Amino acid sequence: MTCHRLACLTLKGRHPGRMETPEEGGLLTTKSGWEQLLDGYPWFAGEGRFPLPAYSEFMPPPRVGRSPYGAIDPLTFASQDPVGWRVSEIEEEYELRPGLEHVAQHVIGALVKLSQGVPVYLIAGHEGLNLKDNPYWPAELAHAGQLAHERYVVLLPLALSRTQDDMGRVRWTLFGSSEQGPERAFWKGFYSAPDQEWPERTSRSFILQLLSKVYGETARDPAQLEQLGFGILPSDECPVQVLPAWTRPFVCDEGTSFEGTRYLLTFKPFSQLPAAARQRYLAGQLNLLPCPHSLVFWGMPTYRQLARELPLAMQIPLARLMSRRGGPDGLRVPQSGWLHEPHPQLDPARVQKELIHDTFTRTHRWNRVHRYDDELSLNPRVDKLTRVLFSTSSDALGLYDKPMAHNCQLWTHDFHLLLDGPNAPREKLQQAEAALIGGGLFGYRFLFPAMRVGLHEVYWQRPLVAFLAPGGNAETLYDVPLGYLTAYRADPLDVAHPVELWPRLLRRETYLAALQTFDPAHDHYKHQTPLNILSLLDNRELLGHALHKSLAHHLLHLAKHESLEEWLSSLPAHASDPARAQRVQQELQSLSEPSDAALPEPITYAQTATRSFEEAWWNDIAALSHGHYLNKDNADCVLDPATQSKLAHHYRDLEELGDYLLKRHRQAIVESGMENRAVCGELPFQWKTDFNFPLFGGWRVNQENKGYERDLLVVIPGKNRREAVVMADHYDTAYMEDQFETSRGGSGARLAAAGADDNHSATATLLQAAPILLKLAQEGRLERDVWLLHLTGEEFPADCLGARHFAQMLIEGRLRMRSGEEAWLDLTARVTGLLVMDMIAHNRDDAQDIFQISPGKSAESLRLAEQAHLANMLWNAGTQEWNRLPERHGRARGQRSADGVTIPAIALHPDLRGEVRTVDDPHSSLYNTDGQIFSDVGVPTILVMENYDINRTGYHDTHDTLENIDLDYGSAVAAIAIETIARAATIPTMTK
User: Fold this and answer.
1) Is residue 52 assigned to a domain?
2) Are residues 437 and 568 in the same domain?
3) Which has fewest Cβ within 10 Å: 403, 446, 558, 585?
4) CB-based contact 38:65 (threshold 8 Å)
5) What proportion of the chain, given as a percentage, has pLDDT over 70?
């Protein structure tokens, strides 16, 4: 082999690991990595800078690193590693590795067919235009057929990022092939920082491993690499000056004869390789790494044209090989394809039917599917794609759907951008809809935005290293260069100037043992034991201190009466490697306190653990759900014949209901003697959307400026007026599925449920909390403000409308309350904790006396969950005393109302188990509530909710009435929620 030795080459002032970023005035930034990404916080202060559309209209990106509200994400980055991006063991083991193997099988299978001359329409495209004039696929390669020596080695850079779905699951997602080209990710993978290359021996060892795995080379000493006939031919995209230093002894040029070369690493298009290299490859005398077939994705003139208008379009060619994938494991793969709408000038015979995929399976957050299930395999609701994207007709919307065009990109048959959904204003949506209705051939991909740090969206450019094994399956390698991460400013996106970071795979032994050791046969749902173990490990790290024993127990999903000690002792018996499991057991035992500290005195149970509280709470639910407030969905009244014919009256009752709630709170303020200090009022706003929903009466009133939406707020002052803790509900109700769905005997009418549980059980709690918390304020016991917040529009079609408005105003710094006709109050306090209640009064028959405390993703959220757990422990301790008092002594456990109206008889106070279900817990219902909105933006949040049963009667139907309310269970959950907020308001600090 004749190669030019470049050991003395300098890099002429530009290091291959660093991408220089121009700033204003032409100066180069001295900031790099996380320092640059986190620069400029708060990014979204100011009117209109943080719009929050409904998730059903636009699924937003996951916010990582630092939230819009300022919460720090210690699990993604470490302050001592300014260019590192931490990737957890569960991400790598359960998402990335299975996903990469899935991609490898599809890609290598397609490349084999391509070499065999079998039509691969997903690569070739309509009329073969993707391969026509493609420099990576010249005629001599296309006509070569399947070469006997070809092992289809791919060093294929994938564009990956984390995205969020409508079940609140944040997963690594395949966006496609790297928009940075076919080779940058590979070469940058030999760095761990801009100025820090892998050790030369490690780099050489990777090449030896690859040659050994693929071709059976037996050399083991990296120093022997020169003797194997290995060479590197740089390309124009990454010339020799920017390759890592270890490559220099192997670099060849155009004049090399290649006679002694057996393995040539090059990303040059096959048509541009030296003639000697092409001839030797086609003759079976030279192996090209990567397989030249695998580079065709970056030479397609079609998508290169589209990339002039859509910067990330070069991701799309490879993504087209993959079918849509959801579920909790592997890589998420959004749907892409082509759709055909008839057009007089388009000959249907010219349409490549194998490329047409014009239907879509809809999902939404109210699906009655567990979070650990694959919702696509369990969901039969398939609709025509054009309807899914744009239709607002009654039958297209159903009860829970919206047009999805904001989460889609569209282009014309000649590869000109038609719609960039995530960034499209209303007029662009209308133009795209008109174009589809007019007919033609259109390419599309659903796009759920990549994770963001501040103003940057982030992608991992990760090389897929795989080859065709002798048995005919693809084999994937993992001890390989991991590429790098690119972060782009999103306004507008500039592919040429990313901020760069490098992945850090966490390989902590206890975590790996949890994921790799335990037999799933002992689990009741997928990954139960590993997830239990990781819950303890992650939350110990997040809190920064040992877990109280009872909290550790409540973080686990166990059999109801199984103790923490019993579960720990059982781990080795359920493992494939008992010794490894024993080490996990020992690590977990060290995470929790040997015993819980003595419980403090409760603050509010003297007022709430009483029959008078139970009766007042029940009577409030009865008045709210069984009184004359009927039309309580924000869209009321819906203007279709089926609904209009069923209405008892033809106006919306939310306004009158809101007035009643404000009246009650004003009365409580006066009775507490706080009328000159506590205030209440409304937070008014308009319901705005990019699509028109003319059938929704409430929406129409907003558009015609004849009405508005409003959250309701009570401000109870504490000593520190710069901080506030919030207790929230939603006071609207859902449409009844059994009245709507014809399969359940419905007529198609959209009629609001009575809402006894969902969510007047929470609204009644706020009404009962007000006088208790006002008394604490009057006594000077509150360290910070308490806000009682009635949110509007949680249910569809408003879809967390009030929570989104409240969160937006917090982030933008514009929260104002109207307390009278002309009186406005600026609310500048920082929210240090927010407790959302949603459905707290249905006690499951098959799993009694359990409720959930579901914190958001921040450490501050978990600390608020600690307070809720403490409140739960105090309640259970108190029941022992209260149940011995004369009025309850000898009583039985509570029963539901016999007739659905009469208040149940006095009964024993129940002991409750408040399971602390963190954000990744498959049983957390946070995603299904307003709590998801607050968690996503970084407000410290917990959800207090019953043990949600997705299939029960009484949820979103005619039976959400007092017949399904468990008085003793629900009032106990209400009491625990009030105690939680009182504790959060009275402790000296909420930050530790």
Assistant:
1) no
2) no
3) 558
4) yes
5) 97
